[in-house]
Amino acid sequence: MGQISRRSVLTSAAAGGAVAWLSSTTTATASSPLEQPRTAPVQADGHDPVTLRWLERSVPAELAAGTTWGVPWPAGSFAADQEFSLTTESGQDVPVQSWPTGWWPDGSVKWTAHAVSGTAARSESYRLAAGAAAKPDAALNVHSGRDQITVNTGVIEVVFPRKGGLLIKSIRRGGTVIAENGHLIASRQDKPSTDPSPVVKTESFTGIVSAVTVEQDGPVRAVIKVEGKHKKARRAWLPFVVRFYLYAGSDGIRTVHNFVFDGDEKKDFINGLGVRFGVPMRGELHDRHVRLAGQDQGVLSEAVRGLTGLRRDPGAAVRAAQHEGKATPDPSTWDSRVTSRLQYIPAFGDYSLRQLNAHGFEIHKRTKPGHSWIRVDGGKRAEGLGYVGSPTGGLAFGMRNFWQLHPTELEIAGAAGATAQVTVWMWSPRANAMDLRFYHDGMGQDTYPEQLEGLEITYEDYEPGFGTPYGVARTTEMTFWALEATPTAERFASLAEANSTPPLLVSSPEHNHSAKIFGSWSPVDRSAPAKAEIEDKLQAIHRYHREQVDQRSWYGFWDYGDIMHNYDGDRHTWSYDVGGHAWDNSELSTDLWLWYHYLRTGDASAFRFAEAMTRHTGEVDMYHIGKYQGLGTRHGVMHWGDSAKQVRISNAGYKRIFYFLTADERVGDVLHDLVDADRSFLVLDPVRKIREGDPFEPEPKAMPVGTTTDWGSLAMAWLTEWERHGKTIARTKLVNGATTIAAMPNGWVQSGAITYDLADGKFTGPTEPSVYIGSLSSVFGLIEVMTEVVELVDDENVRKQWLMFCRLYNATKDEQRRATGSDWGNLNLRQAYSRATAYAAHQLDDDTLALRAWKELRTGHAGYPADHDFTSRRVEGPDVLNPVDEARFSANASAQFGLAAIQCLALVGDKA
Predict the structure, then answer these.
(1) Residue 782 in contact with residue 717, Cβ under 8 Å?
(2) Which of 614, 729, 620, 692 lies closest to 660, judged by CA?
(3) Which segments constitute the PcRGLX/YetA-like C-terminal alpha/alpha toroid domain (predicted)?
(4) What is the structure's pLDDT at 686?
(5) C-alpha torsion sign, points 862, 865, 867, 872
(6) For residue 824, pLDDT beyond 50
(7) Closest Cα partner for 507 from 86, 37, 878, 138?
(8) What structural domains does the chain harbor?
(9) Alpha-carbon distance 336 to 912, whole Å?
């Protein structure tokens, strides 16, 4: 395969970037505003076929409408217009849609995305190869009219109005309207549920559409993006983006809903947030069916008017048909003692499955409003799928991570009438209202000195007004199926499983590694005892933190996806209530560690763990609108509570791997928005509490942006945008930043009056050598991004200065003085920086440095030394509330040990 030289990188970049987005309607980016000029055609070498397998390894019975995944390619393999074919392991052609999502700087494709429909032939493995793609039997069709957009999958037709109060006007199957009037609903109250008040005012809002965009239009997959705000009278708030994914030949619609909180947390307590559809009801009440998924393939199968369990038996055939969801036999064949008294059998038109916590759900039903609910049944963790309809068709509706994102609810109302209303409640109105207020009153920390004192005791960086949720967001995934008939219990259980864990195709760790993506990592290797020992430790810390999620019940609408930071051994619990020791919020690159663990292992549980964290940290832990837009919040008791708002937390590197593996458009939006995160330095001084001298007055041409933690986080966003062929300024700032930092006498450890130009990303600093270095400088992705940047930017000085940094961080003071004029002080986190030493060893082919790297890793300074106990012990009552496993791990140490060990294995594994 062709290998890119640094010289060719610079030449192609100077020529204007790389190949433009394809104009074909088969690409998701045909109408992208991020187009760049075309360059000369790429001379591609091609690549052997790639084997794909299902992430969970088992062949799924159902897909969530369809599935979309990403595959990386070595530089020089394919041009952007390359077609791909997909076949099963037996050689059967599978219709597939393919498009590029990332490029190498020479214009060859770095990442491609691929989509297949839920009707695709099932196989344990597939073969993805260069070649013409098979076409679907009935190509998906998108028609854009003046007032609406219509998508026809060949099985269902979905109409999206361009404006107004409806997301979806109708979903038809054949000539039958399965669902209609799909819209968003939200409600608020002016006081919290937990503070008793004689008068509580409530308001209800409807989502009003302001824009509808066709982001992709077939032939296998279409993506419709709907934007707007929730409105009532003069108030418009809670901006939303909802994407609908439709696949050729499929009756499913995958939905990704995102909203941003832009209210006043002291007045706006959300007490309901949902998506609602009308489902026309047909047939007699006894032929109208309700299905609700429980746990472990459990299914509640009922009819609006039940014919089983009566005092008089309508007949075995009647009972069996109703229970199985089929049309009942002609009533003339029933026992007349039943048919003459049907009007006296209660018709239960309303159902509610309520998952108000992670450990229990209940199902209730009632005949109609104004009458009591009766309890049906309950269980632990519902999979989050419901259905209402008849043998002539109905709607299945579900929410992913249903119990993990509690309080949630699936509701059916009015099934005994002409039209049932089904609602997927992302926040159930039966729960307490959402309370986003800060958790304490400041405790007198009104000045910077007082706040710094508070930091010394609880590690919470408090500041009045900074603990605001204004601008944080949440994404929820849903699936809807327009079914031709009431599904069997077996099929309904399969649909529930697809809704809960959408099947995903993946390429192997070996192929992904061969593509040379994401820097320094390698597949799991237990070929030598020393390597096996490290692999065992990596597996132990990953398993421990993953299992802690369930043992500690780290679930809930705003919490799911994060883990805790520090452990309190006295209470045998994580420090959930102790300032900066509580939620992790990506501190020291936990996200990166989890993603690299997946890349190495290909393990499904590792992917799902990292996926949940990406969804959380990319939404809840960062600001999407407002004055802090583009910034994340440092770790704390509340995800948005700490006053340290930083780009190191909103870091694009923590989301980038998920984006390329899945082509997820929502995460793509977040990555694109982060390109301009450097503008946040105009409105917030990161060092305001310790700044000396004149008050901070931002100057766009001379901003106080750090060259390590700050720049490394920004560089990840620019690198990703450059890969995706987005804004050209991203590449400009990335290259300018790297080269101007390297041009300073001591590069990434230069101290003094260093300033940053917002316009072009250049740094200006002293011409005389001096040194300043912080221990956190490279533990928020700088090492990882520079591993890639050095190979992509044709500047020998960048390489030399970065190697100096990596070689000297853990070197002796004498070595540091000889190279930079002074020693670097008493540095921390030396185990974490063993990977910097390993990088220098690999680049310089220096065995002495390689051995030093392993010694640094095993010494374990500020981490886990070789003799650290990597096992856990069981703690049970009465010492703890619930039985738990306890180990001597922290999120910081685990993340940095994990990243260091992974990169040492990849770079100097032969010296282990």
Answers:
(1) no
(2) 614
(3) 502-911
(4) 87
(5) positive
(6) yes
(7) 86
(8) 6-130 (no CATH), 144-431+476-500 (2.70.98), 506-677+744-753+764-784+796-911 (no CATH)
(9) 83
